[in-house]
Each structure stands twice: as structure tokens, then as C-alpha cells.
Amino acid sequence: MTDGSARVRIAPSPTGDPHVGTAYVALFNRTLARQTGGQFLLRIDDTDRTRYQASSEQKIFDALRWLGLDWDEGPDLGGPCAPYRQSERTDIYQQRVDILLNSGCAYRCFCSAETLAEAREIQKKNKMRLGYPGTCRDLDPTEARQRAAKEEPHVIRLRVPDEGQTAFVDQIRGEIRVDNSEIDDQVLIKTDGFPTYHMANVVDDIEFGITHVVRAEEWLISTPKHVLIYQALGQSLPKFFHVPLLRNADHSKISKRKNPVSLDWFREQGYLKEAILNFLALMGWSPADEQEVFDLDRFQQEFNIEKISTGAPVFDLVKLDWLNGMHIRKMDPQALLQRLDEEGFLPPGVSCQDAAPILPLVTERMVRLSEFCDRTDWYFGEPAAPTADQLIPKKGTHETSRMALAGALQLLADVTTFEAAFIEPVLDQILDQNSLKKPQLFMPLRWALTSRQDSPDLIEVIMVLGKDRALDRISRALEILVNTP
RNA sequence: GGCCCCAUCGUCUAGUCAGGUCUAGGACAUCAGGUUUUCAUCCUGAGAACAGGGGUUCGAAUCCCCUUGGGGUCACCA
Hints:
It is a single chain. It contains 21 helices and 9 strands. By secondary structure, the protein is mainly alpha-helical. Among the domains are: about 90-245, Rossmann fold (3-Layer(aba) Sandwich); about 330-370, no CATH class; about 400-480, Arc Repressor Mutant, subunit A (Orthogonal Bundle), CATH 1.10.10. Strand 1 (about 5-10), helix 1 (about 20-35) and strand 2 (about 40) form a beta-alpha-beta unit. Helix 17 packs across helix 19 (about 440-450) and helix 17 runs antiparallel to helix 21 (about 465-485). The termini are far apart.
């Protein structure tokens, strides 16, 4: 499928929180590089100075590293093609655009943004084709150069042929062919001297020796523009792969209005990086053996980028929740403990060692790591006392609960070894002596010990709490019950 | 609106390229059971889809055309 090693890249813009779409595309790019023994580069696309956010870059680095999607060359690592920040490469773009200017493939345009906006309004009103009217297309190059020399504000545009077609092969979708008349004379260099995405992207991909361009489908239709730039620069084309765009539930392009899209959010919610990667991998791809829970290694072994589906996947968190639970349960307890600690989900002041005894009781109940504190608050702290109502189960009465708690208090006091083998018979004995049904004993006890309805296995709760704490809570509950008629 | 892309259960998908093995498979979710002291885990089962219409063919989810629907894009944003 892919001859030789793939040199690939992602080029996120530092304009906000690290986006889940960036991780999605990074996953495929990096995997392709790893599969072929190539390199995965990170380039920062910071040519839009108006939307630039200084803090964003580091957040992108952190989020991708957190996911394990590390890169081989980038702004922070350096590399043979440095610099990797587009704002630091303006002279390189200028050199290339000079070539285009000299060959006549590009020209200077002095129209102001306002003028063009007005023109567009008129086009809209008259239902004409929207686009650059070509005002400066045939300006005398010498005159244009002189005006530019006098620092008259201008942009540089690509001269797109009026006729003919531009075609390229998308490795996922096949040949894409567009009439040149549909393609506007693209701005290559903006008035502020910074390149547009189209220009910077193509020049950098050439300079970096990118062999496979793997990016989201939203770029599919602008690829002919890029092809035209490659051609004008006399360069051969990389292979293009346009992967499907993640969607909101209403099938529109994923957006933060309708979906959580910040990788930071997923991290704060207690999603495992393994689950996120697994989930993202499942968007457009599925393993041959239908075993949907897998790790990055197995994904790398089996993934074939050409097999990505062409449909548009809806980003549905419900399945991610399931995957997260599966990955939590798959983890080694020690590793899970450490992860809980690293991600800041242990209660304040609680160490891995402190949490070790309680962890096995809650792993099968956790969907997100963030639930750990809530599910174990009865163990690490003193929970609010249960009410009498809570101590009386549906199938019980005030009297059955009283007998249950009193029995437990009395018989458990005699148990010297707090282990399952000793506790279980005691519970049976309480049942027998008072002719209680199981729920009539277990539910009051559960509320007494944990102050919640959905606790782990009761015997394990009793063991982990220890004799003193268990008896204290039972007697506290009994008191509440007795004092409430 | 022009252009481009896409179209299998509610959702993610297998099957489409090389038409028959598809009375369309799996997973999530839902529902119903089972295990069970609650919750959860786990197990079993059920319902649930080839957008529509024309072709081509002995035979179409698979190939072709049209329609419909959805999306993307038409910026000195990426």
C-alpha cells in the first residue's frame, strides 16, 4: 500500500484548547509513520496572528504527549527542518513566492479586504458565483512591483488557469477532479506578510519532505488549490488521504457548541488515554476479529489507512464510556493506582498505598476515573449518617432493621479475625436467629456502613473498614433507627 | 445557490473494490431473562438497517443512472 517509509505531519493551530480532531488525525499520521518506519512531525500552524493564543501551543504538546502520540520532530524537539513554527518561516515562504511571482504564476493584488467584501455582497445579492473578481490579475508586473516597493498594502495571489481541470487521487476516495473555473485566485501571502494556510502548508510539506498528507476531509475540496501550487513550484505531489470528519449528533462537523472537544476536558473527566485512542480508532476503522477493545500496539499492527471508511462518524460518548470502563478493568491494579494518582483522582492526602485496599472494590463499578473519590468517600472519610428511612429497606420494617443492626452489632463484636471466612457465617447466623430475609439484613447494614445504596460487596466492605469502624457505624445507625419511631 | 464528498440497525461498523457463501455479521445503547445482599461486573436472549426508483444480470447491500437525504467548501481562518 505505502511504498517505503512515510514522513507525515500534523499541523495544529494554537488558537485554543487542544482539539479531539487533532488527536484523531495525529493517531492516523503517527501510526502510519510507525508502521512504515518513517517520521511523524509536529508543525505549529500559527500564521493567523489574530486568533493566536500563546498558551495554546504548550497545551497541544501536553495533550498529545499525554495520549502517547509523541512526535519525532517539532518546535520543542527541533530537527533537520527547523524551525517548525510557521511564524518563524516567513522568509522561506517569501523565497518561494518570489519564484511564483517571477514565473507569472502569482501576482500582486492591491484590492482591500473591504472592497472585496463589498464585491462579494453584490455577488451574493445577484446570485452570481462568489469569488475574486480578478481586478488586479492583469496589472503590469513592473508597475505592481513599484507600488509594492512604496509599501502599498497588497496580497499575493495564485494565478489559477481559467480553463481546464485540476485532479488528484485521494487514496481513500479515489480521483477528485475540479474545474479550474471553480477555483479562485488564492491569496498566498496576506497583507501582514504572513502566508495563508494554502501557501504555508504546501511549502512546508515540500521543505519537510512530507510523503503522505493525512488530514481531515474538510481539506478535500481545497486540495486542488494545493495541487496547483505544487505544480507552479515544479514539485511532485505527496499522497493524499482525507479521513472522515468527526460529527455532532446532528451530523454537522464536530463543534464545541454541541460536543466536548477539548482533550483537556476528557482528561479532567477521568477518561483513560487508552480508551480515547481506542474510541478514536473505531471511528472509521474496525479490527478484523471484531474484538473492539484494543491498545495502540495492536492498532498499529492491524491498521490500514486505506481501509478507513468514507462515512461520517458521529462522535457518541456513550461508547467511549463503555470503553473507558473496559480499559479500567483491563489495567493492572498497581498501574491503575498509579494512574489515579498521576491524574489527580485520589482524594486529597491519600496515597497509592492508602488506596490500594479499596481499589479492588470499586474498579468494576467505575466508568470514569473521576468517580473514585465519590465511590470511596465512605472509606476515606466519615460519611453523613443515614436516615431511618434509608435504613429500612422496601422489603423490611423498622423492626427487621433494628434486629438486623442489633444482631450485627452483637455478633460481629465477637469476631476476632475480620476475614470473609469468619464474617460470612456470622451474617448467616443473624439471618437465622431473627428469621430475616437477606435484603432485610444487607440493606440496613449497607446503609449503616457506607451511607449509600450502591456499595461494593458487603463482606468486603466490612473487612476493609475493620472491626472498630464497622461497629461504630452500626451502632450509630442503630441509634438513629431506635430514636426514630 | 455552485462545486466536491458521502449514504447498511438509534450510534460505531463488517460486507461493496474482484455480484452468489448475506433469510446482512459484530459492538455500544435499549428491552427481557439469569447470576447476585444493592449497584456493578459477568452470562443468555430479543427487537433493530442495506434511503427511494430505475436499469445491467440467471442472481445486486455490492455494478451503472436518476432522485432524495446528509455533509463539506466557496475568507487576507485554518
